[in-house]
Design a protein that fits this description.
mainly beta; ten-stranded antiparallel beta sheet; 3 helices; 12% helix; 50% strand
Length: 146
């Protein structure tokens, strides 16, 4: 089960380059239900996501590079490329996605939680702007089609 909240941001944190980051490329084979292929650095995955906004099922299956290269060509819509920065937010980690290509300058912050209570009691940092968790327009699967 994946439990996460998503936020737009007011401004990028200072010294963003000091945080660990990686390049992610992903495409969607299907958006209802979500079936995605992703290259995350040198790792490759096929992911199934169930329905839901705040909490939903998620299964990741490892792929090799050859399988990924074959499947990404079958993606519907745009291939999403983003740089993901990992910022500490004790006891959580903010995954700050800076979208590249035609989705730039979109930036979305995501925070994953161990349970619904933790997600609902989370107080976002002051550089976060709007909570867009319940807005499907900010799902990557939707962005791949828009």
């Amino acid at each position: 089960m994946e439990i996460e909240r998503k936020f737009t941001i007011k401004k990028l944190p200072e010294n963003l380059e000091q945080y660990p980051s990686r390049l992610i490329e992903q495409g969607y084979l299907n958006t209802d239900p979500v079936v995605r292929v992703r290259r995350d650095g040198n790792d490759y995955y096929l992911t199934y996501k169930g329905k839901g906004l705040l909490a939903r099922e998620e299964y990741n299956l490892p792929l090799n590079e050859e399988a990924y290269q074959h499947l990404i060509q079958k993606a519907d819509g745009r291939i999403i490329t983003k740089r993901r920065y990992l910022l500490p937010c004790d006891p959580y980690t903010i995954e700050l996605d800076v979208f590249l290509g035609d989705l730039a300058p979109l930036v979305i912050a995501e925070v994953e939680f161990p349970d619904l209570e933790a997600a609902q009691s989370f107080l976002p940092p002051d550089w976060f702007q709007d909570d867009v968790t319940m807005d499907p327009a900010y799902h990557n699967s939707t962005l791949s089609r828009s």
